[in-house]
Amino acid sequence: MRVAICLWRLATNLEYSSISQLFGVGISTACSVTQQVVLAINRAMKTLYIKTPSEAELMGIVQGFRDRWRLPQVAGAIDGTHIGIIAPADDPTDYYNRKKFHSVILQGVVDHRMKFWDINVGWPGKVHAARVLVNSSLYSRSESGTLFPRWTERLNDADVPLHLLGDAAYPLLPWLLKPFPEGSGLTGAQVHFNRQLSQARTTVAKAFGRLKGRWRCLLHRCDAHISFVSHIIAACCVLHNYCETANEEWEDEEAGDEVEDFADPEIGHQANRGRKIRDAVCAYLAQ
User: Fold this and answer.
1) Could you say which residues of the chain have pLDDT below 50?
2) Distance, CA of 76 to CA of 260 (rounded, Å)
3) In 10 A of CB 150, how many CB atoms?
4) The model's pTM
5) Which pLDDT tens digit goes with each residue over 6-23?
6) Which phi and psi (to 5°) does residue 150 adopt?
7) Which residues, 6 or more positions from 243, have their beta carbon under 8 angstroms from its beta carbon?
8) What's the first-to-final CA gap in the chain, in angstroms?
9) pLDDT by residue (tens digit) across 138-167?
10) DSSP 8-state class, residue 235
């Protein structure tokens, strides 16, 4: 019954007063049980269902992106989404995002099957996507070379490493490719590259859509206290992967409320290396 109460709350976002009547328990009991089960899900299941892919799993992911979109060396797609919250008492303006509501950000990396293998939860909605990335363990591990095996593929005089796919808000890095800046000066090959990258990145948009569709406590506004919101979001990501692993049928819907930040400037030697790798993949796709 405890598990059922929690799942009902997460899946429907029904008020605790209604859940208490439905299950024949007190309102405070329904609330405390939900918190207990959320914490148990994260404690017992998170490391099993959200983890950096093994080498064998990475090979499958890379092949999956190559088979569907012809993109080489792709280990995942990254994006962020806003989770609506009640305005916190402390520093509420920090959580007020560009879409005019209070939120925290969920940064997620998904594979070709729309399963999360890395999440970062809790940054205020006003924060730029690039800042969320730079302050995540994903970034520090990638920069130190410990996130992925050092597999490279030689394409057009460039050694292309394993990398993620991001949108214009992210920095261009050797391990994170983004589209060419939109404009009239794009070549046909660059337009084609942008199209392929955009199509491959639908995996993360669809993952967010399924996450919020299954667990509707994240769809509009999560009414939990700000100190517990991140636990709920993480548990819902775990349950999303659980459902995807079990091949639960789902009809994709629009994700909505994705983080749409201004483009991040491309500066430094990492951007130069990233441009060389992006140019090599672009030329490969044009062949």
Assistant:
1) none
2) 19
3) 8
4) 0.93
5) 999 999 999 999 999 999
6) -85, 55
7) 210, 214, 250
8) 58
9) 999 999 999 999 999 999 889 999 999 999
10) H
Phi and psi at residue 39, in whole multiples of 5°?
-65, -35
Cα 80 → chain centroid: 5
Query: How far is the C-alpha of 237 from the C-alpha of 186, rounded, in Å?
Result: 37
For 11, the 3-state DSSP assignment is helix
For residues 92 and 110, give the distance between their C-alpha atoms in angstroms, rounded to a whole number: 30
Closest C-alpha among 73, 75, 97, 125 to residue 229: 125
Length of the chain: 287
**Could you give the angle at the alpha carbon of 169 between the alpha carbons of 165 and 171, nearest 5°?**
65
Pair of tokens at residue 268: 């430094």
CA distances from 8 to 2, 86, 214, 218 (A): 10, 21, 11, 13
CA distance 69 to 197: 8
Cα separation, 244 vs 158, in Å, equals 36
Chain centroid to CA 213: how far? 15
